[in-house]
Specification:
Blueprint: E1 20-24, H1 31-36, E2 40-44, H2 45-50, H3 60-78, H4 82-89, H5 96-99
Antiparallel strand pairs: 1-2
Amino acid sequence: KMYTGRSCWLCGRNGTAEPLDKHHIFGGAYRKKSEKYGLTVYLCHGSCHIFGEKAVHSCRETMDEPPRYGQKMAMERMGWTKENFMREFGRNYLDEEDLQPTEEKPTGTFQILDEELCVNW
């Protein structure tokens, strides 16, 4: 398979061994807004998106991370406050310490570093 320049938001693989799925960070009623604001990530279809032990759709801990990342990205890109974000997406996903301004910009990638967490590694 040809590399497309995308990589899995969780494990960093490029999709050659397993296809990458586009995952809308905020689903359901907010799916269209996720698309509109570019709040999507790519995930390895089986191991990181759906079936893996720590996949977004099978692990609560992993499922909680994309909305936190998405809110940070939306607030940064749009110049939104927490209240602006909540008006668009219905709730706040960040802790107070996450809302404090920092010098560092988010890297755009959440990595599972423990190889045992991703079953297809």
